[in-house]
Amino acid sequence: MEFVIIAVAVVVVALLLGVGLLVGRGRRTTRLEDGTAAPTLTRPRPGDEQATTPPTTVPPVGTEDVAVPPVQLPPAQPEPGLTFEVPPPSAGRLVRLRSRLARSQSSLGRGLLTVLAREKLTEEDWEEVEETLLAADVGVAATTQIVQRLRTQSLVLATGDGTALRELLVTELTSVLGPDLDRSLATDRELDRPAVVLVVGVNGAGKTTTCGKVARVLVGDGRSVLLGAADTFRAAAADQLETWGERVGVPTVRGPEGGDPASVAYDAVKTGREADVDAVLVDTAGRLHTKLGLMDELGKVKRVVEKLSPVDEVLLVLDATTGQNGVVQARVFTEAVAVTGVVLTKLDGTAKGGIVVSVQRELGIPVKLVGLGEGADDLAPFEPRAFAEALVGG
Ligand SMILES: Nc1nc2c(ncn2[C@@H]2O[C@H](COP(=O)(O)OP(=O)(O)OP(=O)(O)O)[C@@H](O)[C@H]2O)c(=O)[nH]1
Question: Would the CB of 27 count as within 6 Å of ligand 1?
Answer without folding.
Answer: no
